[in-house]
Amino acid sequence: MKSTVPVFISAAILLVACSKSKDNNPDPSKDPPPITEGTRLDQFENSNFIYKFTYNDQQQLTGVAQTFKSNPTLTLPELSATIAWSNGKPVTAEITKKEKNAAPYRFVASKFNYSGDRLAYTSHIAYKENGSEIGKDTIYFEYNSSGQLSGTRKVIEGEVFLFKWNNLPDGNIIRTSTLEPGDNELVSQSFEEPYDKNTNPFSLNGVGRTLFLTDITSIEMPELLLAKNNLSGYKERVKRQKLNTSGQVTRTQETNTDIQFSLVYNNQNLLNNSKADYAIKSFLDGKQIVNISEKEDRIYTLGVKK
Prior knowledge:
Oligomer: single chain
CATH topology: Porin
CATH class: Mainly Beta
């Protein structure tokens, strides 16, 4: 089982990036205008879900509600999360699940464990409707020599999932690794992730960082939660090679991911909406086994502190 604690569901591919449209493009030679104090992301909508965000008086994210858009062929549960804060840090989170025509129940309970001011790890416990445990996940956080968050290591039933990155001087990030080689395996990855100069709506009030730390990351890819600006493109190249006991390559699998976004900005150079065009191709022993092309709308609703 890949994950015993499935959190917020998204039909969107988590590898999503963006490129500016020709219309309403800001002048790249000029800095964008300042953001109005108190501006925040109140709602995010993609092709399948609507996410509404609520905040406390300190403008810290305290609630996330996910609702599924009407689809006659598919029925998914409603999910909502509440996040508790203490001394400026999230300390607990709880996700409630509600199936159609059923009472809501506690689905996931999370606890944040600190070493000084640094978040060391989070523990998540998933529950059935009757209150019994489904399983547990643990996410460990890594930091660079400057004390900046630079990676996560998720352990699920002994299986490890990585997400590591470099922090750029302009407040953005670029991936370095997402895969841990298995036994007798070689893995190589490369990434291209350019950014524009415009403010990422998920960077307002630190809402994206909170979503990332609470592992509600299927709302968006980590870059779109953590980065200061908006991605203008995304390319990933992955090569996995299986070796025999003599060290010879017996199988090669290559995956290429190319994603483009068309972005529309408001008069503050903040995203109003966007469209994602992504293509994923996978090859096994030189033969293509996956070829996916999709489009997805994204709409951002911004608000100001009440």
